[in-house]
Amino acid sequence: MYPHSPRPAFSFRPLLLAMAIGSGSLLASVPMALAAEQSEQQQFDIPAGPLAAQLNRLAAQTGLYLAADASLTRERQSHAVSGRFSAEQALLQMLSGTGLQAVRRDSGRYQLLPSQDSSGALNLDATTISSHLPGPDADSTGTWTVGASRTATRMNLSLRETPQSISVMTRQRMDDQGLNDLTEVLQQTPGISVQSLGSERFNIYARGYSVDNFQFDGIPTTLDIVSQVSAQSLADMAIYDRVEVLRGATGLMTGAGDPSATINLVRKRPTAQFQGHVSAGLGSWNKYRTEVDLSGPLTPSGNVRGRSVVAYQQNDSFVDHYHQEKQVFYGVIEADLSDSTLLTAGIDYQKHHPEGSSSVAFPLFYSNGQQTDFSRSTNSASRWSSNQQNILNSFLSLEQKLAYDWTLKATVNQMYIDREYSLATASWGFPNVDTGAGVRLYGGAGSTWQKQTGIDVQAQGPFQLLGREHDLIVGYNFAKYDNHHDPLRGTAIEGTSVNFYTWNNYTAEPNTSLGQLYDGDTTTYQRAFYLATRLRPTDQLSVILGARVSDYEYEYDLRYLLTPRLNSNPSYTETGVVTPYAGVVYDLNDTHSLYASYTSIFKPQTVRDRDGVTLQPREGDNYELGLKSEFFDGRLNTSVAVYEIRQDNLAEADPGQQVPGTTTAAYRAIKGAKTRGFEAEISGELAPDWNLGASFNHSITKNAEGDRVNTVAPANMAKLFTTYRLPGELNDLTVGGGMNWQSGIHFSAAPAGVPGTVKAKQEQFAVFDLMARYQVTKNLSTTLNVNNLFDKKYLSALDTTFYSGYYGDPRNVMVSARYQF
Fold it and tell me: Pick from 360, 461, 344: which is nearest to 401 by CA?
């Protein structure tokens, strides 16, 4: 970046670069004399790199709408753009030497064509590059990495410019590995441990702590696995372009939360030209899946664009009597209200209907204290159990380009979940190792609804100080979380004894004629103002400073209809909580950058101690140092990081203790808890047609006495996956494979019903996967995925609440076909 005088007001005139698809002739066109265009000039400093990625950077800076064909931009490198130019001049310089030219249609829209052929018929696979997308869309680039992310600070930063550990699972990688659910994606994501607590509940760990901060396009939401309304972890990937995972404390953008990670699900967006795909797949355990994805302009001028996605899946399971069906619908519209105003509105709906589902996994111990070893097909739920969830997510955003390259954006996201459940789970008590007796049923029926509303208003742009250009963002967050639970009184279910070996998942359904058991309402509010700036004192040095000032309110209203003495109404309020953030990035050269970051931790807690008192909020600090590198003009990214997390009031189960008047486990607060770890990751293209994702993560948490805590989260994880498209005559074949390894997990407890202190554990294990894809024609491909190749049997989760466990998936196979147009 070069110092220069303050920029004049910039008049945004988005150029709609589009192209014709199919075999018809293009409209009459003439080459564009870009250098002769008289438009406002601005400063550029975009290095040479992958053409699609660098065109996105140009679009983000100038407001150009760019569309290029994937086959044209693939494997092409851009020319560096450095200095003051008009947007058109910058585009011309970037295309210099690429063999491509910008061509104007009669309508005034633009497209990229091969230089040697500015007219005639083309049949191209389209990909869109747009200034309104948050960095390059992985959906369009077909790579394993992205050029930019906004998850850390809402500023458009490359992975190398972000002073925290961040991993991105792109659309291409999800397609390569056949990852259709969010939990499948996270299982392959560096530093993330996914542990199933039953059929539809998951505990997700990062750096030894649970992850409960989720975002949709940057708007925060909360995951509450205790309520079993876990819409985020059930998300189907058909509607998402990529998943960004920012590890460590993220208080600047999310407010209250664990120092674990924030998971940002970035939705697919409409494209400037018509495109789409149809796919179908068949897999193990009678798995069937189909998808249809259509996108393109809705008006002749292209000022209104839309996208629609429909997906359907049904499957049985390796678990006995478990069946799943889900339907997914997604629609989004973008409208250019003017050359500088973009309106986006959309809605997605997912119906998730499991049968034979269990909210709790099988018992981990026999009555003698020995750890159980059941068949992987063991199901602790009755055959009629169900936990249906309907999830409706709606969103609206308005983005206004302002003078001096500033942008004002307002976004609203509302998620509504309706849950109906009826279940019986053989999970109370511990079976006799010889007879199987000694287990009671837990369950009942009822309904739950949850509504989450998130609002974000922000303004960001550059400013001049001491002759250099810097960035500033200022914004306001509002988040409201409502959870309402109406369980019914069920007879002949809860507390009924069964023989775990012989009950065969048959039991009477609950009699709910007695009506409602209790009302349970949880409400939380977060309101916050945030500000962050990226200062550039020199060309090599960037300093990011920011702070968030938050108000937090929590209230839980529990009212028993028959036993009012058990009613409770705990509440909690915090105002003016300041969460500072600081990050420094220093470029050693064009490839390597050193970084350091700091942020504070604030996490209100709802658990109570043995005296019935709610624990004070967790507070602490998060420090991180690292080295990030970009190779091959950004096609390959690497990072190495070390970190330390210091916390007070960390909740830990108080063995053998319960909250007075309830059967709920009591907790105690740990002071001086300290987490230390290091991470290493490599992701992207090692060579043309060769992609690699590999990582190693280490994390251990100890209390002030030096004893390790949070032992159900693995201390070490290593993940690897790679694909390679064969050369020569075998170029239509892509092969790949990988491995996930983790160190052992365990916990010790003294539950009532077993003698003394018992220990549950899962030793270290590794799971291997394979894939192969064959390009049958230009538009048609077929893919084979084999997961858990050697059929490793392992416990994927150890639940300290119900003393239960859950097995990981046995070997399974999926074959799918995809037609792209």
Answer: 461
Contacts of 606 (CB under 8 A, 6+ apart): 554, 556, 570, 572, 614
Four-residue CA torsion sign, 494, 495, 496, 500: positive
Burial status of residue 143 (CB atoms within 10 A of its CB: 0-12, 13-18, 19 or more): buried
Residue whose token pair is 């585009």: 91
In 3D space, the residue among 415, 436, 537 whose CA is nearest the CA of residue 480 turns out to be 415
399 vs 411: CA distance, rounded Å: 9
Q: Classify each residue of 630-645 as buried b or exposed e, where b means 16 or more C-beta atoms within 10 Å of its C-beta.
A: bebbbbbbbbbbebeb
Cβ count near 515 (within 10 Å): 9
Q: What is the pLDDT of residues 696-705, one digit of tens each?
A: 999 999 988 8
- Rounded to 5°, the CA angle 170-176-177 comes to 95
108: number of Cβ within 10 Å: 9
Q: Which two tokens stand for residue 457?
A: 């208003």
Domain ranges of the chain: 1-131, 255-350+358-377+401-820
Which secondary structure element, helix H or strand E, spans residue 90, and what is its range?
helix 87-95
**CATH architecture of residue range(s) 1-131:** 3-Layer(bab) Sandwich (3.55)
Cα 70 off chain centre by? 25
Q: Are 769 and 789 in contact (CB under 8 A)?
A: yes
CATH topology agreement for domains 1-131 and 255-350+358-377+401-820: no
* Block residue for tokens 């390259």: 405
| C-alpha 16, offset from chain centre | 30
The CA-atom distances, in angstroms, between 529 and each of 252, 253, 328, 460, 474 are: 10, 10, 35, 14, 8
Residue that has been written with the tokens 């040697």 in this structure: 116
CA atoms of 611 and 213, how far apart (whole Å): 29
Cβ 701 vs Cβ 708: under 8 Å: yes
C-alpha distances out from residue 143 to 140, 203, 242, 386, 517, Å: 9, 29, 11, 39, 52
Q: Which two tokens stand for residue 209?
A: 């702590």
Tell me how far apart the 2 most distant CA atoms of the chain are, in Å: 88
List beta partners, residue 595.
585, 626
248-259 exposure pattern, b = at least 16 Cβ within 10 A, e = fewer: bbbbbbbbbbbb
**pLDDT tens, position by position, 296-317:** 999 999 999 999 999 999 999 9
Give yes or no for a contact between 54 and 48, defined as CB atoms under 8 angstroms apart.
yes
User: H-type helices in 591-640, by residue range?
Assistant: none
Q: Are 654 and 619 in contact (CB under 8 A)?
A: no
Residue 338 has φ and ψ, to the nearest 5°, of: -160, -175
Rounded CA-CA distance 583/348 in Å is 36
Residue with tokens 């092969």: 735
Q: 0.90 cut: is pTM over it?
A: no
Element (H, E) at 420: strand 407-429
Surface-to-core class of residue 687, CB atoms within 10 Å of its CB (0-12 exposed, 13-18 middle, 19+ buried): exposed
CATH match of 255-350+358-377+401-820 with 2.40.50.140: no
* pLDDT, tens only, 218-262: 998 887 766 666 788 889 999 999 999 999 988 787 776 778 999
Q: Are 74 and 53 in contact (CB under 8 A)?
A: no
What backbone phi and psi angles, to 5 degrees, belong to 761?
-155, 155
- What is the C-alpha separation between 271 and 133, in angstroms, rounded? 10
CB atoms within 10 A of CB 276: 17
Pairing of β 166-170 and β 29-31 = unpaired
How many Å apart are CA 515 and CA 664, to the nearest integer? 23
664 pLDDT band, cuts 50/70/90, is low
Q: Which two tokens stand for residue 288?
A: 């069937």
Query: CA-CA distance, 570 to 135, in Å (whole number)?
Result: 43
